[in-house]
Write a structure and sequence with these properties.
The complex is a heterotrimer of chains A (317), B (291) and C (233). Chain A is mainly alpha-helical and 317 residues long. Chain A has a single domain, classed as ABC transporter involved in vitamin B12 uptake, BtuC (Orthogonal Bundle), CATH 1.10.3470. Helices cover 78% and strands 1% of the residues of chain A. The two termini of chain A are 27 Å apart. In chain B, helix 1 runs antiparallel to helix 8, helix 2 crosses helix 9 and helix 9 packs across helix 10. Chain B has a two-stranded antiparallel sheet with strand order 1-2. Chain B is mainly α and 291 residues long. Chain B has one domain: ABC transporter involved in vitamin B12 uptake, BtuC. Chain C contains nine helices and ten strands. Chain C is an alpha/beta fold and 233 residues long. Chain C folds into two domains: 157 residues, P-loop containing nucleotide triphosphate hydrolases (Rossmann fold), CATH 3.40.50.300; 68 residues, no CATH class. Classes of the chains: A mainly alpha (317), B mainly alpha (291), C alpha/beta (233). Chains in contact: A-B, A-C. At the A-B interface, helix 4, helix 5, helix 10 and helix 12 of A face helix 3, helix 4, helix 9 and helix 11 of B.
Chain lengths: 317, 291, 233
């Protein structure tokens, strides 16, 4: 459903983002921060597929991210496979695990809490397992640079790669939204029982959404490793997974623009909090996300997108 | 290691597992009560135990008393806290879609974790001189007094809870609402009041659990995560409806976790997770929607 | 078939046959097992005993979406609102059962909505914005859009005023003849059922207690006794 206005919005967004990118390209800290914020937005946009469109509370985003990123890294470090190829494997592994968990959990009639629980625990379990099997150390990426390794020499080029990924995820979202899959996913989110009655294999479609989201997250996970230049068990971060879900909800479930807006604003705000008060009060940024979620959940569950729609309707009157 | 040695090690874990399981039963009972009566999916349950444990630690440290005594002081605080959370957070989202409900409680848990992190920092805190810290040697096995006492208290509390639910007016009202909310309303039960009190009672159980935990161990901001998982797995395994069933599943989980720690302490949560996964594959009856 | 829920026997050895092209009425007081029967047919429940045959094929225990694909559609007793979807979107989703193209599905949806007689202005409205009567019509349209051979209507007249009920009955008759459907109409409202169906089956406490043409059934003493209090035709 790529309408003229949608295309225009995307173009404007890209223009603005690139403009900011050019502006900060001289300053390494801000360049990397912008890149991180954009990548975070990409993860949230991917999460929108399972959370916003399909209405499943997935709390394992960072698990898929870390798994994909680490698989890609290890394929590079141990087998010499260039990440530009390796990320596809990383995504596949992440998607494989996601689907494995989804198959029993998405059976028709199983309550949504169990999926949330399984995914929330997955991050913690993988964190423990990874630490057990690989040790508590940081593993650094090899000293090789270039687009082949998705590790360009300048931060600005990395920003471009991340921006391309973000754009791609936005387009995937739009494409799905307007397709049969999108219609079915929205119906599942609205009412599973009716969906089954009109012929939707709810489990299958949930798994499709899950596979797409986890594949993207797993593949893009390597970019997160590149930003850190290393990986460790700490990449399996439950707080990050929850934060991503929070952004998707605050933005307004199903709204890609809401999700990205929430992601960028809050992540930037969070970074500000972390850099100013973070030494004194750890976890302040996460506290902000949590409070925002509670406020949105109680007062305005439709999120930023709902707020925006309301304003638009009010302005039209 | 000799066969005898291995056997002793395994049995030791079974014993510890039973103690752990009884503790888990208390933790899970609060969740089961709230979930059963109010049909609300509280993801923050473990984090509430964690915050309560910090309260216990604070009182113990300031007044220099044993955690079990602090626990008694903490219970009324938690009761009131329970009323506040129910009215302020839970009630507003009761009618809304499950995802929002879960999300709000996830938010609550997240907030609690980070308040704890910000205020107390990440290092574990424990009360250095609990009264019951000796390990009794019974044959080749070591049984810690604290664990034994905790198990005894757990059994007592579970028994009291069972009696409460089957003999008192409020308890029966709670069960009626669990079974069928609309009929309960028609019978004149003030469902809103039942909800309020249920949450408060659930929080008292949380308080008991936290006191028991502080008698045996330490608290840190992420303690709650594993408690949440275990509680939900226990509820999944047992279904809702009987305290006895819940106690049995909690003990099973405790034993499984202890056995897991024979392999490695990091792996024991993975064992619980695997149990959960397998229940979901093969026997999902506890997972299905009330229809 | 027989279906139990714990100690309650919702359906006790119930047999129902429906011939192609028939309109069969299924009546009975609340709790007699009508919705349970529908749920067993459509795969939401699995009967404890007995089988379901559709067009010569055993469909017992199939998943609901498989049953829908084979050509059985239904409407809902308790209104299931599609609050965040528009009318057109909801019906299009139904039509997607028979095609992969959203364009084609939308065309089918438009056709069906016109057949049902829902005015075009309503098609863009959200589920949260429409009236009860419109809801019933959309529910019907959505079920029709899935291209069924058998349509199960579960108390579709419930909550409607008499003139709305009449209009609905007209629409159903039109749809039935236009599409060559077979219908099973569960109803509480006697007038509705009697005007539509040639044959009526009566359920009471999970059992069939009468079967036959509407006038006969209406004067059957057992039926009157079971209903005690319902207004007769």
């Amino acid at each position: 459903m790529l309408t003229r206005s949608t295309l225009l919005s995307i173009a404007l967004f890209q223009a603005a983002l690139l403009a900011v990118g050019f502006l900060v390209s001289g300053n390494n800290y801000y360049m990397l921060l912008l890149t991180q914020v954009a990548l975070f937005a990409a993860f949230v946009a991917a999460w929108n597929i399972i959370g916003g469109l399909t209405g499943q509370l997935d709390l394992a985003s960072s698990a898929y991210m870390a798994l994909g990123g680490i698989v890609t890294s290890l394929l590079w470090m141990r087998l010499g496979l260039p990440p530009v190829v390796g990320v596809w494997a990383g995504g596949a592994v992440a998607a494989g695990l996601a689907v494995l968990i989804g198959i029993p959990t998405f059976r028709f009639g199983v309550r949504e809490v169990w999926y949330a629980l399984m995914t929330a625990s997955l991050v913690v379990i993988l964190n423990n397992l990874f630490r057990y099997f690989m040790g508590p150390w940081d593993f650094y990426l090899p000293n090789k640079w270039g687009w082949l390794y998705l590790r360009p020499r300048t931060y600005f080029e990395l920003f471009i790669i991340v921006d391309v990924v973000l754009l791609a995820v936005i387009l995937v979202n739009i494409y799905i939204s307007g397709s049969k899959i999108g219609y079915y996913l929205r119906n599942i989110k609205e009412d599973e029982l009716v969906s089954e009655a009109i012929g939707v294999d709810t489990r299958l479609y949930k798994l499709i959404a899950l596979a797409i989201y986890s594949f993207i997250t797993g593949a893009a996970g390597f970019l997160q490793v590149v930003i850190y230049s290393s990986f460790s068990y700490r990449l399996f971060d439950a707080g990050l997974a929850i934060s991503i879900a929070i952004m998707g909800i605050i933005g307004g479930l199903g709204s890609i623009s809401g999700a990205i807006a929430a992601a960028m604003v809050f992540r930037a705000l969070g970074e500000y909090l972390r850099s100013t008060l973070g030494g004194v009060i750890p976890g302040l940024d996460l506290l902000l996300y949590g409070v925002a979620l509670i406020v949105v959940g109680i007062l305005k569950p439709e999120g930023l997108a709902g707020l925006f729609n309301q304003l638009r309707r009010w302005w039209r009157k | 290691m000799s066969v005898g040695g291995l056997l002793v090690a395994v049995l030791q874990q079974v014993i510890d597992g039973v103690f752990l399981g009884l503790f888990y039963a208390i933790v899970a009972s609060g969740l089961a009560l709230i979930f059963g009566v109010m049909d609300i999916i509280n993801f923050a349950h473990g984090d509430l135990v964690m915050i309560s444990a910090y309260f216990v630690w604070l009182i113990s440290t300031y007044l220099n008393i044993d955690p079990l005594l602090s626990m008694l002081l903490v219970l009324p605080v938690l009761f009131v806290l329970g009323l506040a959370i129910q009215k302020g957070l839970i009630n507003p989202v009761l009618g809304k879609e499950p995802l929002i409900q879960i999300a709000v409680t996830v938010g609550l848990g997240f907030v609690l974790q980070n308040i704890a992190l910000g205020y107390f920092k990440a290092e574990p805190r424990g009360y250095p001189n609990p009264v019951f810290s000796e390990g009794l040697s019974i044959g080749p096995f070591v049984i810690y007094e604290s664990k034994l006492l905790s198990a005894a208290v757990s059994v007592l509390v579970l028994f009291l809870l069972d009696q409460f639910l089957s003999r008192t007016k409020l308890g029966l009202a709670m069960r009626a609402v669990t079974d069928d909310r609309s009929s309960a309303m028609l019978m004149g039960i003030n469902v809103e009041r039942v909800y309020l009190l249920t949450f408060a009672v659930g929080m008292v159980l949380v308080g008991v659990a936290s006191g028991l935990w502080m008698e045996m161990g330490q608290v840190w901001p992420y303690l709650g995560t594993s408690f949440s998982l275990v509680s939900w797995v226990a509820v999944a395994l047992a279904g809702l409806g009987s305290i006895r069933g819940l106690a049995v599943s909690a003990v099973i989980i405790g034993i499984a976790e202890s056995m897991g720690s024979l392999i490695s302490p990091s792996v024991k949560m993975a064992v619980v997770y695997l149990i959960f996964f397998f229940i979901l594959w093969f026997k999902p009856r506890g997972f299905f929607a009330k229809r | 078939m027989t279906k139990r829920f714990g100690g309650v026997v919702a359906l006790n050895d119930v047999t129902l046959s429906v011939g192609r092209g028939e309109i069969v009425g299924l009546i009975g007081p609340n709790g007699s097992g009508k919705t349970t029967l529908f749920n067993c047919i459509t795969g939401v429940y699995k009967p404890d005993k007995g089988r379901v045959f559709f067009m010569g094929r055993d469909i017992t225990g199939l998943q609901p979406h498989e049953v829908a694909k084979l050509g059985i559609a239904r409407t809902w007793q308790k209104v299931r609102p599609f609050r965040n979807l528009t009318v057109l979107e909801a019906v299009t989703t139904g039509a997607l059962l028979r095609t992969d193209s959203v364009e084609e599905a939308r065309k089918t949806a438009v056709e069906v909505l016109e057949l049902i007689g829902l005015p075009r202005e309503e098609w863009g409205r959200l589920g949260s914005e429409i009236t009860l009567m419109e809801h019933k019509l959309v529910d019907l349209a959505r079920a029709l859009a899935t291209g069924p051979k058998l349509l199960l209507l579960d108390e579709i007249a419930a909550g409607l005023r008499p003139h709305e009920q009449e209009r609905l009955a007209e629409v159903i008759k039109k749809v039935w003849s236009d599409r060559g459907l077979t219908l099973v109409v569960v109803e509480h409202v006697m007038r509705f059922v009697m005007s539509l169906s040639k044959r009526v089956v009566v359920l009471h406490e999970g059992r069939v207690i009468a079967e036959g043409p509407p006038e006969e059934v209406a004067s059957n003493p057992r039926v009157i006794e079971a209903y005690l209090g319902i207004k007769p035709v």
